[in-house]
Structure formats: structure tokens, C-alpha cells
Amino acid sequence: xxxxxxxxxxxxxxxxxxxxxxxxxxxxxxxxxxxxxxxxxxxxxxxxxxxxxxxxxxxxxxxxxxxxxxxxxxxxxxxxxxxxxxxxxxxxxxxxxxxxxxxxxxxxxxxxxxxxxxxxxxxxxxxxxxxxxxxxxxxxxxxxxxxxxxxxxxxxxxxxxxxxxxxxxxxxxxxxxxxxxxxxxxxxxxxxxxxxxxxxxxxxxxxxxxxxxxxxxxxxxxxxxxxxxxxxxxxxxxxxxxxxxxxxxxxxxxxxxxxxxxxxxxxxxxxxxxxxxxxxxxxxxxxxxxxxxxxxxxxxxxxxxxxxxxxxxxxxxxxxxxxxxxxxxxxxxxxxxxxxxxxxxxxxxxxxxxxxxxxxxxxxxxxxxxxxxxxxxxxxxxxxxxxxxxxxxxxxxxxxxxxxxxxxxxxxxxxxxx
Length: 418
Known about the structure:
The protein is of the alpha+beta class. It has two domains: 9-219 and 337-417, Zn peptidases (Aminopeptidase, 3-Layer(aba) Sandwich), CATH 3.40.630.10; 221-334, Alpha-Beta Plaits (2-Layer Sandwich). The chain has eleven helices and 16 strands. The longest helix is centred in the last third of the chain and has 22 residues, at 301-322. The radius of gyration is 24 Å and the shape is globular.
């Protein structure tokens, strides 16, 4: 990686603050020795309070909205102009890393810190949101915070319960939030002109390219299915090989085909069999039935649909040839979320000026930008993370990369002055 210009001392100092604040937030955990910060926990509110203090210190007006997002606003020259929204999430998975989510909120605060220290007011306000629940760790439903802003909370979410039987509504009441007021968090479509989110890559592409930053083209769509091969169980010693209807052998053949067909397709498509069960599961019995999962993802829905159809067609061909039955049922699906081309270009110009080139790549993981894109144009900036590890204590970024990210973020936001 060859940088076109050296980093400023300001960017380096900002990065050190961001890293220290990530460490500080990591202390707010319900599990000693690990990082677990879930929606509507005491640690969630503590994190909001702390982030709100950091927002206020750079000249922002702050508030916690009715679903538990922490929000801040730095006024622009025209109070009526749609604001520029920056943000990410402050919740975590269990035994998490410390950068997934908070890095995006804290670098956004450094963007406003730069504006404030230089006495700069953009034509529009800049708002920052620390979303309350992107991961869905506690209640098994994701994007609660960002869907608060879009006003797309299904009513049955309030009745969803955690592992202790506590409902979302009960947990809200316990923290002084009123479940009847969830729609008060909704923002008008004219409130914002765009949304930018900075996030660790959660993958190895930037590291492989030796680049600190990348620009996201789209957030992958996904399809998840429960699948099965049904054959006939039989005695492992007495049924000849040519007479078997082995469900596990069929599943194994299909799994290899999934890997080969998906890799050959390219287009950033991925497919995974993450769970498999064989029945009856005895060492001396030919498997008569196998249940397995299929997760297929890609940044473009048409290509994703074609791949899925081809994979299911291959499974049916294998089953027919082996004298088995195949079935599949989709239990989850989300459309791909395209990032706005004009916003991508803004980010790409800032990134290229810093590191000499701009790498475009899709996001294989979900983000709050999925929900926000239903109302406003979105774009995302990725930061290299060591070995692509995330959702794990070994999640790691380095100070220099965070400095590059902060500088690119500042440069992009300053571009809105024009």
C-alpha cells in the first residue's frame, strides 16, 4: 500500500482516541473477562450515557430516543436542510470483539470533533446515531435500533422474549422506556439526505490486498434453507454397495458440488452448509435420512437466485440418480442492499487520495445500513481487520488503519460543504 499523502497529526491523535474509547466501551460488559453488551441491558444504557458525553464534548446536542438509540446533532448553516447521518451500532454478540459497531460510532464523533475544532458548519446538520441493537443477540431479532428510525418495527417484536422469558416490552419498561412510544423514534424521510457507516470489514480481502480501506458496493442478500435427503436405512454389513440408498453419501456429494459450483460462478457469491444431522446415526447402519442447512449469499439478487436454483437442481439430480428423495424449505431471506453509487464515489475519491487506489467490495455480513437504505441513500467504508476475524475476542484493527479511516471519513463529510 502506497499512500498518496502522509497522515496528519490530527488523524493520528483521533485514531488513538478512538482506540482508547473502544477499550473503554469494552469494559461495559455483563460477563466478566468477556465483552457482551446486549439490547436493553444495564450496560447498553451505560454505553449510551458514555457515548452521549463524548458527543456533547464536540458540540453536539444529544438524546436517547424511544427505542434506545443514542443520538447527537451538530447543527449546520440551514437548520431546515436534510441532515447527513453517520453511525453504527453499540451492541455486541456474546464474547465479542471490541470494534464491530463501536468503531463506526467513535470515528463519526471524530468527524464532528474536526468540524467543531475548526469552527466549520456544513450547509446541513450532521447527526450521529449509536444504534441500540444490530446483532439481535438478546431477543433473536436484528436491526431493532435502525428500524426504530425507519418506523418499521413489527408490533409483535414487543412480545418477543429473551432466554429468561423477559419480553422486549418488559425490558423497555425496566429501563424507563415506554413501549407505546416506539414510533416516536421514527424520522421523517426529509430529515436526512444520506447515511454513511464505517465498519470493520469482517473478512480478509483488504488484508490480502494490503490496503487499510475499502468501499462497499452492496450488502449481500441471503437465503437460508433446511434441506434433506431421504433414502433407506440398512445393515452396514449386509447391503451391497450397489444396492444402497445412502442419504449421507448423497449429501456429501451435494456438499462438494455446492463448493465447486459456487466457486466457479464467481460474482462474490458464497454458499455454506453449516449444519448436518444423519439418522439413525449408528456406526453399523446405512444412513436413511440426512437433514442439512444451506446458506447462500451474494450482492446481486438475480445472480443469487440463479445459483440457488442450480444448487437445488443439482441436489434433485443426485437424489434421482441414487434413488432418494430430496426436499428443501427456505426459512429466511433478505434482499441484497445496494449502496448508493454517488455516495460510493464520494468515499472512493477520499480513499484513493489517501492510499493510492480504492478497492470496491461487497459486505457478506448484515449492517444497520440495510434498514436505513429503505428510506435514505447509504454508503459504507470498510476498515481492514486482522485475518478477517470478527465476533470474537481476537478481533483486531491497528491504529494506523483507523487513522486512515478517520481521515477518509472527515474528507468525505467535508465534501458535503460543496
